[in-house]
Amino acid sequence: MGVTAVIGLQWGDEGKGKVVDVLSEHSDVVARCQGGANAGHTMVIDGEKYILHLVPSGILRPDTVCVIGNGVVVDLDVLEEEIDKLGGGGIDTAGRLLMSVRAHVVLPLHKKVELLLEEMRGKNKIGTTRRGIGPCYSDKCSRLGIRVGDILHPDTLKSKLETLHASYSGGRYGTDLPCVDELLEHCLNHETMVEEFAGDVSALLRRSLAQGKNILLEGSQGFLLDIDHGTYPFVTSSSTGIHGLTGGVGLAPSDVNSVVGVVKSYTTRVGEGILPTSMEEPYQSQVRDRGQEYGATTGRPRRCGWPDLPAIRYSCTTNGVTSVAITKLDTLSGVDGLKVCVAYDRLGASVETLSPDMDFLGECKPCYASCESWDTLDGIGSIEDLPPEAREYVDQILQAAECPAEPISVGPGREHLIKVGR
Ligand code: GDP
Ligand code: IMO
Ligand code: MG
Known about the structure:
30% of the residues lie in helices and 20% in strands. It is of the alpha/beta class. Strands 9-7-5-2-10-1-11-14-18-19 form a 10-stranded mixed sheet, with helices on both faces. 49% of the residues are buried.
């Protein structure tokens, strides 16, 4: 198995948490590589629901080591809360959770600045998760950011915070930002946790590879939210594709053996930005209700759309996807009038593959093929047992992806699974 990367191929919330939980049965190490507490990854095990924002989804497997890579921006409050909550539920993180000393720290200042920026954008607002992600990555790129390892050196930490804070002076962000002492106190409040959990993640992964261990890279967000290859500017601030995953933990692209793309059986999007295949009513409300499409991080209702094959083709080819995990097929059971967007019509020409430029996409109109619905998927455990209509639906997605299925999810629980592939 070697290194397997799991990437969302749409606009996030594809069910990556569930797929990572399933695949981590055969993994020694599971790594978060990019993004931060904007992610909300859900797993349902023995009827109990777990939502994780920063700790990798492999933590629910007792023998799996979990790491948070250099590419992640860490909200230390959220992390501490998550570790405590897991501990309270009998899931021990001691000795099996490592966070990179090179990961950047999301400060209270970043969250405040993000609110001001969103306000300033007015009708062009992004609809962010308000987790301070964008400002934290901005400071990282400006080389003003605070890294996890800085917290272990309080003297230089203070000096770095002073420089960072000075970069926000001049009134552009008002006068109500947290002062240096508050930021210092915030960081040092987490010193004990950092001492316990911080280390060299890249070195651990290299050692693990040398020992022949299996590593799972857990992507967050979705490829269409990628800072470079997504629907800019309505994207997040990290590289959500394969490029970001390897860079986010310090592995080489050639270390990766397989890339599992996660596709929800329909499309959802939360926040602003184009959703070319947006469902009309009553499907919009019906699918949102049936799929419980409300954000795992912010609780916002997600917009629902028909499956978008041009988008899937784009995400698969750009990431070298080798297999596709299809989720939430059960949500569409009994929904009459299903359709799939097979191509776009752009000014009279047929477009088979999405281009993420907003001007281009704005000129594209989805072309749909109708699909027969199926009654139920209850109790289905093998691909051969799928009703022929569901099989046809799945095959359309696989043909666009040009790769096999692995696996197909037919419910939120670990047990609701059609195992295909490994
Ligand atoms: P992620 O961010 O990609 O990990 O996805 P989220 O956790 O934000 O959202 C996926 C939601 O769908 C969660 O509530 C999951 O419990 C749920 N889910 C995952 N797979 C399935 C499935 O096959 N069927 C159903 N009904 N729910 C699923
Ligand atoms: P998971 O990992 C869905 C969206 C936000 C917003 C845009 C920018 O659970 O799939 P940000 O706070 O990152 O600056 O917001 O990106 N977004 C997500 N949408 N799932 C996510 O993560 C998301 N993370 C960010 O809604 O539109
Ligand atoms: Mg999510």
